[in-house]
Specification:
It contains 7 helices and no strands. With about 180 residues, it is mainly alpha-helical. About 75% of the residues lie in helices and about 0% in strands. The radius of gyration is 20 Å and the shape is elongated.
Length: about 180
């Protein structure tokens, strides 16, 4: 009898995913922002930090679950996306209710933020840079990061869906491995 072939995929570390790195940057920026600019005791602090954390953690958990369940990976990746959308609304609310300016597409500051956020995936870069920025600027940087990460999550979900359609789920892989092993 032939030796059975492994059927579980061997994925890389979630820490190598650019989308995870971006989400970690969002978390670090949000943690700093919420504790610096929101009043102590404001429930929004916990809500913003938790939404940022959920975005990051669900990417990690989804990637880990993907070895045995593409369905779970897709669902958790979508939860990460939803958490970051919740956080986006919090930043937009912060800007609006304080009469600050949310940068518009024709604003050169937004163009600069887009370039910087597209280039930097290391949270240490943001932790250093934000200490020298205003609340308006930090909120707009966070919004930019969230939009870029949302785009990346959309692409990841599309890729996961295609992979599922092409390869099937865990049960299908197990059945295929058993049939291949038995030779029929």
């Amino acid at each position: 009898m032939p030796t059975p072939k492994p059927f579980l995929p061997h994925g890389g570390s979630y820490k190598n995913l650019l989308v995870y790195q971006k989400a970690e940057c969002i978390y670090d920026v949000t943690y700093y922002f919420a504790h610096k600019y929101l009043e102590k005791g404001d429930r929004t602090i916990d809500q913003m930090v938790q939404a940022a954390r959920s975005g990051k953690q669900n990417i990690a958990e989804g990637a880990a679950a993907g070895n045995t369940s593409k369905e779970t990976e897709i669902k958790l990746t979508n939860v990460a996306k939803a958490s970051l959308q919740e956080l986006l609304v919090d930043y937009e609310d912060y800007i609006r209710v304080r009469g600050l300016e949310q940068w518009q597409p024709d604003d050169p500051r937004l163009a600069q933020a887009k370039r910087a956020c597209a280039t930097h995936n290391d949270s240490a870069y943001y932790r250093k840079a934000i200490t020298e920025r205003s609340d308006e600027t930090i909120a707009n940087i966070a919004i930019t990061l969230i939009h870029q990460t949302d785009w990346m999550l959309n692409k990841l979900i599309e890729k996961l869906e295609i992979k599922f359609v092409e390869s099937g789920g865990m049960r299908e892989q197990m059945t295929k491995a058993r049939k291949d092993y038995r030779g029929y």
